[in-house]
Amino acid sequence: MTDTSAAPIKLEKPRSQWRDVWVQFRQHKGAMVALVLLCVMAAFVLIGPLIWRIDPNFIDPDPVKMIRLRNKGPSWDHPMGTDQIGRDILARMMFGGRISLAVATVAMLVAIFIGTTVGVLAGYFRRIDGLLMRLTDMFLALPLLPLLLVMMFLFRDAAAKVLGPSMGTFLLIVLAIGVTSWMHSARIVRGEVLALKEREYVLAARSIGTPARRIILRHILPNVLSPVLVAATLGIAAAIITESVLSFLGLGFPPDFPTWGRLLYDGVDAIRTYPERVVWPGIAISLTVLCVNYIGDGLRDALDPRIRGR
Amino acid sequence: MLTFILRRLMLAIPTLLLISLVIFLLVDFAPGSPMSEIPLTVPPEVRQKMMAAMGADKPVMVRYVLWLRQFFIVEPQYAIDALFGTDFAQGAQRIISWQSKVPVFQIIGERLPQTLTVVGTAYLIGILIALPIGIYSAYRQYSWFDIGGTFFSTVGFSVPTFFTGNILILIFAVKLGWFPTIYDTNLRITDWESLVKMLKQMALPVTVLALFNAAEISRYTRASVLENLGQDYVRTARAKGMPERVVLLKHVLRNSLIPVVTVIALGLPTVFGGAIVTEQIFKINGIGAALIGAIHVSDLPTVQTITFIFAVLIVAFNLIADILYGILDPRIRYD
């Protein structure tokens, strides 16, 4: 006896993997708060200058006016006050945030690109594995901060001469940070690739004669995406800190191109009389790094299939 | 075990040689090096003499090998001579700083104690804070203590030291006036009063570094204890009727400290690097300040030597961490 009157089975809507990840990510309260805060920060530095249209490097050409404008406290004209030569601090904060975030993002992309390339090559081709991993170990044993300082000091003038002061320093900082921070992602990617390489679908692809290049691009890279994503997020945080440390030690951008680290460095001299000049950029740096770290934590949980769906 | 240690030592030598080559070439070939900054108005023969006086006219490989010889043979000889009153070195050429014309190792010997007192105390205090916090927040996972502890460790980890340092200066030195802002390196501890003064000037830099280290170590401790709490042997211990204190502090703690000890050993050289920033904030005249000063006047021998010493520290502590791991965890066999 067959029951034909059964209600039609409700099929769940097909769900994509990224939707699942997003659902899991929303469970992480800290990461959600961090994401919102980071969006606010991004809006502050990206959209802010379109509304607050004061040139961050504007110094009043009239010396009397300039002297009157110096070291002003917060007012409607200058919500964060002005600095020692009468430049608007709010505009400088926005402009500085742009540079800081741009440096961090590009440096992270450089690091991830090198790291993924080295990791995939080392994991996939056994012949160069030993060599590449020794290279990674050697980079891990380098004293990075002293080397970064030396690199910045020695190559800054040459880079500025070739590409102009802003572009030259930008490229130099980005490359220097990228070249010194790819090692962890290379190790993570290599481990993943070593495991993925033994999977059946890779074997199947190889057995129908797929060339190595296409196996890597088609089958391996999409599957190492999630650890790379987490490493990239945490890499942004590290890059922001490194850039501001360089600026803080006076070896970052020249004063006309304020970054948050540079603003803090400039503010330290006046910390007794105008402490807010240290506090604002410091809060901006700390908040951004904190948010990025929380987002990284949330992403790691969301991308881990063992946790997802529970 | 012994063969493992020997093999690791043998591996460390080429690594160090390669690193020294990288550091040497990077500093030497850079366009900003003082070789390229002799003014063009200087006549060629005088320029030749200047280069010869600095030893810069020889091919780069010769200079590299000479520097290696000075670093690995001559300087240790001088160290032994100074310790035992022998005469191995026999007046051989040492690595001389271009800035102050004194042997670089003498500068380092003068600067190192300041760095070691601050960094060493900070690291010890950091570990002492981090371990209890990490253990307790893992034991009471998701409790208020754990949530607070995790939050503070993420904050401590994210806020850069140059910001916390300046905030502490602002609050405790400028507003309250409890501590000095500048570290006085000439202070000698002779009586009670100077000891108090020393402790006062160490308070702020040590706090900054200790908080930063504690944040990092407590994360690892928490993760490691959490992993061990779920193991079968914990259930067995509880089933036998062991008191919770013994389960936690004897069984779990011993096992979970194994990775933490390696993290502590691996972190020590990076702390030296991070101390560069702290030294800059509090004007401590330590080894990091010496490096920054040397970079700004392109004093190549000092820069090369200090950077390479940092590299030696990293390689040495990697080795120590590996060996410790083998000694502490009998499950790991290196044969």
UniProtKB/TrEMBL annotation, chain A:
It is a multi-pass membrane protein. It is found in: Cell membrane. The chain crosses the membrane at residues 32-52, 99-125, 137-155, 167-189, 220-241, 278-296. Keywords: Cell membrane, Membrane, Transmembrane, Transmembrane helix, Transport. Its main location: membrane. Coiled coil: none annotated. It comes from the Bacteria. Residues 97-296 form the ABC transmembrane type-1 domain. Belongs to the binding-protein-dependent transport system permease family. PANTHER family: ABC TRANSPORTER, OLIGOPEPTIDE TRANSPORT SYSTEM PERMEASE PROTEIN APPC. This is Peptide ABC transporter permease. The lineage of its organism: Bacteria, Pseudomonadati, Pseudomonadota, Alphaproteobacteria, Rhodobacterales.
UniProtKB/TrEMBL annotation, chain B:
The chain crosses the membrane at residues 9-27, 120-139, 151-178, 257-277, 306-328. It is found in: Cell membrane. It is a multi-pass membrane protein. Residues 112-321 form the ABC transmembrane type-1 domain. GO terms for biological process: transmembrane transport. SUPFAM superfamilies: MetI-like. Its main location: membrane. Pfam families: BPD_transp_1 (PF00528), BPD_transp_1_N (PF19300). One of its GO terms (cellular component) is plasma membrane. Gene3D superfamilies: MetI-like. Keywords: Cell membrane, Membrane, Transmembrane, Transmembrane helix, Transport. The keyword Magnesium does not apply. Belongs to the binding-protein-dependent transport system permease family. This is ABC transporter substrate-binding protein.
